[in-house]
Amino acid sequence: MEVETSVNMEVDNSFNTEEGNDKKRETKQLESRSLLMPHLREYCPASNLAFNEHVNKLIAEGKKVYHFAFGQSPFPVLKSAQKSLGEHAWQSAYLPVAGLPELRARICNFHSKLDGLVHLQSDNVVVGPGSKELIFLLLHVFDGDVLILSPSWTTYKPQTLLAGKKAIEVSTKFEDNWKIKPKDLEKIIMENCVSPNRLLIFCNPDNPTGTCYSAEDLEALSVVLRKHNTIVLSDEIYARLHFDNNHISIAKVYPEGTILSSGISKWASAGGWRLGYSIYPSELKELNKAVCSAASHTYSCAPAPVQYAAVRLFCYEEDTMSYVLHCRRILAAVAKYCYKQLTSVGVKAVMPTSGFYIFPDFEILKPAFDRRGIETCTQMCEALFEETNVAVMAGGPAFLRPTHEFTVRLCYINFDGARALVGSEKFGVDEPLTDAFLHEYCLPVVEGIQAIKKWVVDHLEMKKPK
Ligand SMILES: Cc1ncc(COP(=O)(O)O)c(C=O)c1O
Question: In terms of CB atoms within 10 Å, which end of the chain has fewer, N or C?
Answer without folding.
Answer: N
